[in-house]
Specification:
Structural class: alpha+beta
Shape: elongated
Radius of gyration: 24 Å
Helix content: 10-25%
Number of strands: 25
Length: about 400
């Protein structure tokens, strides 16, 4: 890596260390988070080059300042037996959440799906973009057309990836694939449901260490309960997948550990469907949860992804696993280091690894020379996988493991 690349990585690390102040400022300055939820659309009618069209699109908030909000729209249209074309448009609104009058022409009003909307439009070259927007900055319908009238198609609001008034805010989550978001809450959000995926809770950790003569404060269970309550409120999932190693001690299932497991799972079952997936630490788990109406499975398939713990590899792809406890360590030039838990996305191999949910999990340092535990990740090109660090400030893009080697603070 050249010196500019190294400086870029060091800059990211400095942001990690100094960003708490910045993040606090952003949380105050950008308080209107109900206006920033991403949305999905479906092409419901229209023609292109003489044939009927189908397709889908989505919008996302991409920028904010004290003066304007910017929303980005992308639409993929399918026509003439599988041919495709992509359309991209931006909508710029002023601080009062009204489209900028010098750019857009206001049309009439219309009630769409029970919402009072105002039509706005503008032209770019030979293409025209018209959109109907309500008072909370939700575009319910948009029309993309040729200014000559040769073609036109209409897209309607299909679903909201996150509830509009529950958008997590700057850097809280990041979309790595369509409908797949990594979060700084140590969970992955799948659009279907939505579904929250988290793993490696390791409940009963303190008790297991006490049996080995090591004593720690009993904070793991309460910390996990608080984090789960935050997660349920923030993302409002209809389903939660626990991706294995729910319990820590694989040799036994003591009364205290049973109580902690049931205490935590009761928080989830009151709010969502719970799908426990067995990990290599989950011996006797079914005995603990059987009277709660839960069944521990070896895996579950959602949105075309195989979700399994990861201590064994079923060979199914794409796959989402835990088990690895992935982290990266960036050494200091005069001693010490910064350790960051992370998501790993080996996109070419169809492997996603989530970090542990337990605050006690130390993390397995990923290094290019080896040391990877999970078979699915070990068989992938993990050196060139994308890493997303989990920090108190949010999700941070860390580049690839290969690009981090040789970097120091």
């Amino acid at each position: 890596m050249d010196s500019q690349g190294k400086l870029a990585i060091v800059a990211v690390v400095l942001v990690l260390m100094a960003g708490a102040v910045v993040f606090g400022f952003m949380s105050i300055a950008f308080s209107d988070d109900k206006y920033t939820g991403p949305h999905d659309y479906e092409v419901v009618s229209g023609t292109y080059e003489g044939s009927q069209v189908s397709g889908s699109g989505h919008s996302k908030y991409i920028n904010e300042s004290q003066r304007e909000y910017v929303y980005h729209f992308e639409t993929d249209v399918v026509y003439q037996e599988g041919q495709t074309r992509e359309f991209k448009f931006d909508v710029i609104c002023e601080s009062d959440h009204v489209p900028v009058g010098s750019i857009y022409s206001e049309g009439g009003s219309e009630a769409i799906d029970g919402a009072e909307c105002v039509w706005w439009g503008y032209s770019v070259g030979t293409e025209k973009f018209d959109f109907a927007i309500d008072g909370e900055m939700v575009v319910h319908r948009y029309i993309i057309s040729d200014v000559s009238g040769a073609w036109s198609f209409t897209s309607d609001l299909k679903s909201r990836r996150l509830p509009n008034n529950r958008y997590p805010g700057p850097m809280r989550s990041l979309e790595i694939l369509p409908g797949v978001r990594v979060t700084s809450d140590r969970c992955l959000i799948l659009e279907e449901g939505p579904t929250a995926v988290l793993g490696d809770l390791h409940l009963g950790y303190e008790r297991a260490l006490e049996n080995e003569g090591v004593y720690l404060p009993r904070i793991n269970t309460d910390s996990i309960r608080d984090a789960l309550n935050d997660l349920l409120c923030r993302y409002e999932p209809s389903r939660v997948v626990l991706l294995g190693d729910i319990k820590h001690d694989f040799r036994r299932s003591g009364r205290e550990e049973r109580g902690e497991i049931r205490k935590v799972l009761s928080v989830l079952t009151e709010a969502a469907e719970v799908v426990p997936v067995k990990g290599n630490h989950d011996n006797y788990l079914q005995n603990v949860i059987s009277d709660m109406g839960l069944l521990a499975a070896d895996y579950v398939d959602i949105m075309g992804f195989r979700l399994e713990h990861g201590h064994e590899d079923s060979g199914a792809r794409p796959v989402i696993i835990g088990h690895e406890h992935p982290s990266v360590r960036i050494p200091g030039s005069v001693g010490g280091s910064l350790k960051v838990h992370c998501f790993v996305h080996a996109k070419a191999d169809g492997v996603i690894v989530i970090p542990p949910f337990s605050p006690f999990a130390s993390g397995n340092d990923l290094v290019p020379e080896g040391g990877v535990m999970a078979p699915a990740l070990k068989s992938a090109d993990y050196v060139n996988a994308d890493l997303y660090g989990v920090t108190e400030m949010g999700v941070m893009r860390l580049g690839t493991l290969g690009s981090l080697s040789g970097i120091s603070l």
